[in-house]
Design a protein that fits this description.
Elements: H1 2-61, H2 65-68, H3 83-91, H4 94-125, H5 131-140, H6 150-159, H7 166-170, H8 177-187, H9 192-200, H10 205-216, H11 218-233, H12 237-242, H13 251-256, H14 266-297
C-alpha cells in the first residue's frame, strides 16, 4: 500500500516538474519574441531616420520647382517629372564625368588589389632583413593626412607633365597602407606550411599568389574592392587640383558645377546628386556582405 502511494506521488511530482518546465520554456520563448520584435522595431525606426534624407532627396529630384518652393511641406511630388535630370545633363557633361569616375575608380581598385596583395605576401610569407621595420614604416604612413602631401605630390606630377590626364588621377593611388594591412592580416591566418609545400612542388611566388592565395582570399578582395571603389568614387580635393578640362573632371567636381545662385536650380542639383550616388550605393549594397566578412575574417586565426 505504501509503495503504491509513493509511486503515485512520484508520478505527480514528475508531471508537476514537466508542467513547470513547459511553462518556463513558454515564458522564455515569449520573452525572446518580445525582445526580437522590439529590436526589429528599433532598427526600423533607426533606418527610417537615417534613410529619410535620401528618400527626400530622391523625391525632390522628381519634383518641379514650383512644388518645392511653397509654404506647404511636400514630401512627395504631385506631378513627377524627369525635367530636372534632363536639365542637369544639359548644363554639364555629367555622362562624361560619370565615365571618368568609373575609369578612375575601377583602375584604382584593380591596382590596389594587385599591389597590396603582392606587398602583403612579402610581409606574410617571405623572410628578409628589416621586414618588421619596413612594415611599421608602411603602417606609419596611415597617420599622415593626405593634405600634408598634396602640395609635394602636385609639384611631382606637374614636373612629369601629367596634369589633366588619367594617369595623374590613378597612379598616385595604386597602393595603400590600409590594403596592405588588410591582406597581410588575412594571409597571416594561413599556415606557413602551405607556402613551403607549394615551394617544394616547384611553385613560384607569382603562381602561389595567383593560383592559391587569391582564390582563397575572395572575402578580403571583395572587402578591399568595395572600400577602395567608394573612396575613389568620392575623391574631391585631388581631382579638383590636377584637372582643368571637362574631359577629365570626375563626378564630385562636376556636381559642384550644378550649384548656382539661382534658387530654382536646387531641384536640378539634387537630381544630379541622386544620379552620382546611385553607383556607389549599388556597389555597397552588392558587396556589403563581402565587406563585413572580409574586414572581420582576418582578425581571428584558426
Amino acid at each position: 500500500m505504501d509503495s503504491t502511494i509513493t509511486a503515485e506521488r512520484n508520478k505527480m511530482s514528475e508531471a508537476e516538474i514537466a508542467r513547470l518546465y513547459q511553462e518556463a520554456n513558454q515564458k522564455a520563448l515569449i520573452k525572446r519574441r518580445v525582445e526580437r520584435t522590439a529590436l526589429v522595431a528599433v532598427n526600423i525606426a533607426a533606418a527610417f531616420v537615417i534613410l529619410l534624407p535620401l528618400f527626400y532627396a530622391v523625391s525632390i529630384a522628381f519634383m518641379p520647382s514650383s512644388e518645392l518652393f511653397t509654404t506647404e511641406l511636400n514630401l512627395f511630388p504631385s506631378s513627377p517629372t524627369m525635367d530636372n535630370f534632363k536639365e542637369a545633363m544639359r548644363k554639364i557633361p555629367l555622362g562624361r564625368f560619370i565615365l571618368n569616375s568609373f575609369i578612375v575608380a575601377g583602375a584604382i581598385t584593380f591596382g590596389q588589389i594587385i599591389s597590396c596583395s603582392l606587398a602583403a605576401f612579402s610581409f606574410s610569407f617571405l623572410d628578409f632583413k628589416g621586414k618588421n621595420v619596413l612594415f611599421m614604416i608602411v603602417m606609419a604612413t596611415m597617420m599622415i593626412p593626405g593634405e600634408a602631401t598634396i602640395i609635394s605630390n602636385y609639384l611631382t606630377v606637374s614636373r612629369l607633365k601629367w596634369l589633366d590626364s588619367y594617369q595623374v588621377l590613378i597612379i598616385p593611388y595604386l597602393t595603400s597602407a590600409m590594403g596592405i594591412f588588410l591582406f597581410r592580416q588575412f594571409y597571416m591566418t594561413f599556415p606557413i606550411s602551405l607556402y613551403e609545400s607549394a615551394k617544394i612542388d616547384g611553385c613560384s611566388n607569382i603562381k602561389f599568389i595567383f593560383r592559391i592565395l587569391i582564390p582563397l582570399t575572395k572575402a578580403a578582395i571583395g572587402a578591399m574592392a568595395v572600400y577602395t571603389f567608394i573612396n575613389a568614387w568620392n575623391m574631391y580635393m585631388w581631382p579638383l587640383l590636377v584637372t582643368g578640362s571637362d574631359s577629365m573632371r570626375t563626378v564630385q567636381i562636376g556636381i559642384g558645377m550644378l550649384d548656382s545662385v539661382d534658387s530654382q536650380s536646387i531641384s536640378m542639383m539634387i537630381a544630379g546628386v541622386v544620379m552620382i550616388i546611385i553607383p556607389s550605393i549599388s556597389v555597397f549594397l552588392i558587396g556589403q556582405k563581402q565587406l563585413i566578412h572580409g574586414m572581420f575574417s582576418g582578425a581571428v586565426k584558426g
